[in-house]
Amino acid sequence: MNSIKKISTAVYTPDSMLRKPGKMIGDMFKDIAKSRELAWRLFVRNISAMYRQTMLGYFWAFLPPVATTLTFVFLNKQNILSVGETDIPYPVYVMVGTLLWQVFVDAMNSPLKLVVSSKSMLAKIKFPRESLIMAGVYEVLFNFVIRLILLAGVMVWFRVELPLTAIYAPFGIIALIMLGLMFGVFLTPLGVLYQDIEKGLLMIISVWFFLTPIVYPSPESFPANLISTINPVSPLLITTRELITTGNISDVFSFLVVAGITLILIFLGWIIYRVAMPHLIVRMGA
């Protein structure tokens, strides 16, 4: 007896997905499960295209943190920039901070970058849009793993031993990725419609870098300490750096608060992304 294979069907209606929030949320998680294979293929394609036509190849992943570290080490040595005392050798301090900052920035840029670069595919093919977000996460993790090789070499050179708390560092790295994705997902709908968002984001990131304790210890005097306090990146980056280097955690409460709020907001951003994508695809295909 021939077996009958069930064929899934899709029904398109003009009704908003928000009319049935329970079904929409269920479909969101189903699409995440469906997105894994496509996300992996997009990731492999993007990584191959990124480094294939370059002379230095994967060394481009190392050059930005190396250039940043050497610049600030030179400025500090020449007393042009006085950053005060650090618990670990300053080059290691800057290198760890720069790598963690780059994780956040890569995660924030990835949603808009991948949606814009996939315009033609989005307009022609029906597929789970979450696969673009997942492919971006894979890219962020891939680049970070490559840079870990550089960090390991620097820590060995300066004889900085990993504390036992380093086993918890992945939680901090995941929190930084989630925070970056949260901002990126919220900005994607506007960024697709207006190129000003992408251009303005470059300027904001440059200023944000200097307002975050990446190349200097967290300030203690007012008003500099206020900027560090309200900056959501600061507790995540500082705590993760402490987990990797010293093991002395200074403010775990702020880390947990920011991480918890990030989880709530990224889910809200995911809903907005889900609702907005059909309308954005129409605009992109017009």
General description of the model:
The chain is mostly helical and 286 residues long. The chain has one domain. Helices cover 71% and strands 0% of the residues. It contains 10 helices and no strands. Helix 2 (63-77) packs antiparallel against helix 3 and helix 3 runs antiparallel to helix 5. The longest helix is centred in the last third of the chain and has 34 residues, at 252-285. It is globular, with a radius of gyration of 21 Å. The mean pLDDT is 83.
List keywords for this structure.
286 residues; mainly alpha
β-sheet strand percentage = under 5%
Global Rg: 21 Å
Q: Which term fits the overall shape?
A: globular
Largest sheet: none
Q: Ranges with pLDDT <50 over ≥5 residues?
A: none
Order of helices and strands: HHHHHHHHHH
N/C terminus separation: 49 Å
* Contiguous helical run count: 10
Secondary-structure-derived class: mainly alpha
State the total count of DSSP E strands.
0
User: How many structural domains does the protein architecture include?
Assistant: 1
As a percent range, the share of helical residues equals: over 70%
> What's the multimeric state?
single chain
Average pLDDT metric: 83
Summarize the structure.
This protein is mainly α and 286 residues long.
Layout of helices and strands:
Layout: H1 21-52, H2 63-77, H3 90-117, H4 119-124, H5 130-157, H6 169-193, H7 195-210, H8 224-230, H9 233-244, H10 252-285
